[in-house]
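Data follows
____________
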Amino acid sequence: MKAVLSKVTGGPETLVYEDIPAPDAPKPGFATIDVKAVGINFPDVLMIEDKYQAKPPRPFAPGGELSGVISAVGEGVTNVKVGDRVLAQIGSGGMVEQVSAPAGRLTKIPDAMPYDIAAAFILTYGTSYHALKDRGHIKPGDTLLVLGAAGGVGLSAVELGKAMGARVVAACSTQEKVDLAIKHGADAGVVYGRGPFDKDGQKALGALFKEAGGADGFDLIYDAVGGDYAEPALRAIAWEGRYLVIGFAAGDIPRIPLNLALLKGCDIVGVFWGNWTARNPGLFQQSIEELLELYAKGKIKPYVSESFPLAKGADAIAHLGSRKAMGKVVVTID
């Protein structure tokens, strides 16, 4: 079968497309999936460069979320059967024609849910749902600032924030991206420049965020960008607000003056969804069911902006890494 593999540390240009053996019969507790689509996410960009906290042994296939059809099940598997359409969250290993995965990481999807939408669903919406609900304790009437609001996790945070009753302000690097976020439910948007910023640039950025947040500031700030954007955003937080640390798409891990947390009486909250799902499998499955219910009601829907065939999987990762992509990038397999 065909696969896209990372054999050496490096960028997308180091990935190879080649034949590998198909997986053996699934062991107890596992199931084999004929892969139909793979969602590409920022961790895939970092993982092949050994810059992510999870470092699978090489060779490995990028791709932590996928959709497909069950073709075989191992002993003891009762939640899925052969022929079921499923989505899976597996961390890595998805850019292959067939994969074996733990049954506990598989969820049946509605018949009407397209494979590309299913493959673009769980990592972004799962992360944002956990962030807003479990870590941010969002409630109706809250104000929410989303940094990087036109990306995969950003758009999911916009949609979920609206579905959960918040007023959402989308912050993006271009007006085109802001317009996309508003189309997906944001109430307003701000355009920030591209960093890095000097001290005056950060001060101006902080003023921009404060103006968008109004006199009371933001109850929640969803930061998947980091870098020079973090401190200016934190300065716009409300008293006892919650600052959600999602990731560092800007490339740099920010250093926050902790006196800001003291002065604002706010919480700086880490969101490590992958670890949370491993520690709380029951809550993980419950969250997926709740998200699929929101999908069925039309309140959330992944925006797939680009699709690539498996042979062009490296191009899909390169496109996402360019930071030009909006919404989700998906690799499809015939």
In short: The first strand starts at residue 2 and ends at 5. The radius of gyration is 20 Å.
